[in-house]
Amino acid sequence: xxxxxxxxxxxTPIAGYLSALTRLRLLDWLAIGAAITIIVAVSLHAYxxxxxxxxxxxxxxxxxxxFEYPLSExxxxxxxxxxxxxxxxxxxxxxxxxxxxGPQQICVRQGAISAAGAWLxxxxxRVFIKINGEPSAAEVDAKTY
Length: 145
Prior knowledge:
Helix content: 25-40%
Number of helices: 3
CATH class of the largest domain: Mainly Beta
CATH topology of the largest domain: mini-chromosome maintenance (MCM) complex, domain 2
CATH superfamily of the largest domain: N-utilization substance G protein NusG, insert domain
Strand order of the largest sheet: 2-1-7-6
Radius of gyration: 28 Å
Order of helices and strands: HHEEEEEHEE
Number of strands: 7
């Protein structure tokens, strides 16, 4: 079939691979199948442990009040601080500050957080936001080098 020879008398690379495959015996095929099965099983187990470490909640603390909301429910929360109102949005298991009365809008520019243990601090308005839950060992902080 592919037993062509090159002008120098050697077999083509495809013919070499095909002849190697035909030399595999039953135990060789079983070893290859077992290796593939183990790789798939370990990959699925690793992926399952990374997906979600359990229910998480969002804590929002102001100078005078504290609130806690589930991370799984989408909502927009307005909290009052000493210099005005801060609007916090919880959506798609992420938390971000939509508006802040601070002059430089640092809280808004920090972006969204989603990992357990992550936090946002809006210091001019004294609002602190934290995601509660067990951090997964597979989660890596974006600031890790």
